[in-house]
Design a protein that fits this description.
Elements: H1 2-20, E1 26-30, H2 35-44, H3 48-58, H4 62-67, E2 70-71, E3 74-75, H5 76-82, H6 86-91, E4 112-116
Parallel strand pairs: 1-4
Antiparallel strand pairs: 2-3
Helix pairs in contact: 2-3
């Protein structure tokens, strides 16, 4: 009977993990080492402390990143919305709630690699 309980618990834990795991894991890779690409990679990290440290090291303020920086030829608002970078959007004061997007919830797990380029 204990084996049955262990199997059931394991199945529930694995099932719950699969439900919580995002449908598509995106792996970002820098195309070059320019300052713009470094800033885009910091935004793609989706961590406020990484973005804060990178902007300080590159001497770029938040307003310049959110209003002027383009990543992969997308405005910052479109970039953070496309890849669901909510923490970066919050740090940069970008409101993503007014943007409309369609998500394929039936998409199978296929990690995709995205090459990030910034302005030269």
């Amino acid at each position: 009977m204990n084996t049955l309980k262990a199997s059931l618990c394991t199945t529930l834990v694995v099932g719950a993990t699969l439900l919580v795991t995002p449908a598509s894991a995106v792996q970002f890779e820098a195309a070059d080492s320019s300052a713009g690409t470094q800033a885009c990679m910091a935004v793609a990290a989706n961590k406020a402390h990484v973005l804060r440290k990178t902007s300080r090291n590159l001497n770029i303020n938040k307003a310049a990143i959110s209003k002027k920086l383009k990543c992969n030829n997308l405005s910052m608002g479109d970039f953070v919305t496309l890849y669901n970078l909510d923490k970066s959007a919050n740090y940069l004061n970008i409101d993503t709630s007014t943007r409309t997007s369609i998500k394929d919830i039936a998409k199978t797990f296929n990690p995709e690699k995205v090459i990030i380029t910034g302005p030269k």
